[in-house]
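ugh ok fine here u go
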Amino acid sequence: MAARIAGRHARLKLGVDDVATPAVIAGVKSWGWDATADQIDATAQGDTTKVYVLGLPGATGDFELYLEEGQAALTLIMAAATDGLPRTIELIPNINEPALGYEGTVTISGALKTDVGGVVTVSGKWQAATPLTSL
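structure:
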C-alpha cells in the first residue's frame, strides 16, 4: 500500500502577473482546488428517471495563510484582488513529486482577518482564467 501524504508537503505558488514565474507563498495553512463539472439536465420524454450529462469542469479554489512579518504575500494577494489582472499559479500537492502539480492563470479575491485571540490570516478564492495543465 502506498504511503499517504501529509499536507505539510504541499506548496502554493503565485506570480506577480500572468507571465511571471510563480514563487512559493510562505505561511500557507491550506489550499484547495474544485474541478466540479456542470451537470446538464438531458431528460427526455419517456425517460423513467432524470438523465444528466457532464459539461465542462470548472477550476476554482481557495487558500488560507498566516500573515508573517514583512511578508510580501499580503501585498501580492490584495493587489491581485483589486486590480483584476490574472496571476500565474502552481498547485503542488506533494513537493516530493512536483510533476504531479498543476499550473495556469487565475483571478483572485482576497480577505484579511485579525482576531485578538488568534493569528492574522489572509484568505482568498481563485478562478481559472486559463485551463490548468500538468506541470
